[in-house]
Amino acid sequence: MSATAAPSPGRRARHAAALAAEQLRAAGLLGPILAILAEIAIFGGLAPRFATTRNFLLIAEQAMEIATLAIGQTLIILVAGIDLANGLVMVLASVVMAKFAVAGVPLVVAILAGFAVTAGFGLVEGVLVALIELPPFIVTLGFFNVALALALLISNEASIINLPPGLLALGNNVSIGGTEFPVGVFAMLAVLLITWYALRETAWGRHMYALGDNAPAARLTGVRVNRVLISAYVTAGVIYAVAALLLLGRTTVANPDAGQTANLESITAAVIGGISLFGGRGSIVGPVLGAFIVGMLQNGLTIVGVDALYQDIAIGLLVILAVMLDRLQRGRSVR
Amino acid sequence: MDSQPVHANGRTGRFDRCRRIALVGGAAVLTVGLIGIGMGLGGANAASPITVGYIVKTLNNPYWAAMQKAAQAEAKRTGVRLIFEAGKYDGDVSTQISDIEDLTTHGASAIIIAPSVSASVAPALRAAKKAGITVIAVDTAVDPADVADSFVATDNFKGGVEEGQWAKVAIGGKKPVVALLEGTPASSVNTERLGGFLKGMGMTKSEAAVDLITNGDQTKALDAMQNTLAAHPDINLVWTINEPAAFGAYTAIKNAGLVGKVEIVTMDGSCHGIEGVAVGQFGADVLQFPAKMAQVSIREAIEAAHGKKIPARVDTGEPLVTLHPQPGVASIPPQQALHECWG
Does A321 touch chain B (CB under 8 A)? Predict the structure, then answer.
């Protein structure tokens, strides 16, 4: 700002900040972080109750389910795919877990059954995409319907209620230093941390990016393309089962009608988080920030008193804005 | 090794200055639009002392749209600030829970809610009550019921009894051969309406010729009725969960050439449905009053904000509408009901 008499520590700090900003920009995270700061500034100015620890934790709790789905979604997008089924695969897993648990099956077995369902869906989808070479869009659109129908069949088309507390554990709070933290948010962060590490530090992770960026080149350099592709869908499936536990904890029932728009919401989070829909590009942290941006927007708009339909307009505009900013940034980064 | 992107217009490569300016301009307009939605709509009427949060199941259904219109009119008339939210679709529990939490943070005086799943909103509503917010359920009960301070709705069981009593007399001396087109089993509305109908008819569920699930969906009801008529051409009475199911059933009956031989009873009270009664498609329909539910619940919210006690249950009424009144069964003609229907 002021060029007069800038002391050298200040200049150094500014230099460090510029460097950090450049790194974030390279990872595609600068835009999402700026968006979050902008939301905090705007809503904080409009409503004094917005910018409180309590409310920020609430936003995290409201966004954790979509954030978790978006992590799985991003794995599939990174290998140049798309998952239209993830919301309903999550719902199916929640119904399976609930059905088993209510029937008196040991809790661990009930939960593992849910994981088996989502991983199984991922395996079949991955095989169809990798070995039979079907387009991911069509495969997952098909399984969207299969998962929806199975969830309705298994639940007899009604919500399963009175679930054992163990199944709802991710909806609980833990008190740390007098503040109530939602357990589910920690579960989501654990999923993020593990995925982030695997993508960044393991050969599997580098192969994912290589495959998504240029599959023929990856194949020529010796990446076992089919194996990596299938593993992306299976890993995403496992993550969706965690999302199912989050959904159960938050809503306290297994509702076969839930999750109908979660697929698009997870894609929205990924796009806002700077993930390229062409694959091979973007940080896994981005989709989580994307889910938070949308969650914060909904929360802030409700707190300042905006009705439901206008909120949907705002989210639609936000997606287009995010892609525009991403495009601007990419255009510049090549110069 | 940065591959050149290919655009939808067939061009490859980066974009030029002109396009960049357009992008920056577009982004600026969107940003202003977003801020405008936040400030312009949110700031309106902020000085009002009483804020009422209103959450319905979804807005892609004329029933809830009718309720929203009435709620907005009542809020304007009484000078309260109304924040109207809804799930993205019927069954969108996650959004309803978030809305309850956000309205609690906002510090609303009251939350009026039609829960998509009765049991799933209770924890969030308890937290709202703890924060001193009055909780009013409309149309659909909260489970457990005592989480709500008041419940404003149609008495679905009573409406069902009226349907059953009317139908029993209307089919005259014939032996009833009944088809049940249920909505969503285990939903409170389905249980209450069907239970009332069976009581009014004086029959049990197993005495029905067929019992099928339609989810209150017109197409599913059409399929169900076609299959029913193929197996049981002697059906003379059809009970339907709501008007979409009734319209589906009527289409199947018409296609089978059985108009006049089968009575359809239903419950909803939209103007479209009442017209169906007026032209003889349905034997009887039961009126519901979403607008009245909105008015009563907002008035209750104001009374509670002034420290007055509000009733635990308000029955907004469920009159039977038919062209053929039967002795011993109260009803009103469709011409009169057309002044009170919704949608």
Answer: yes
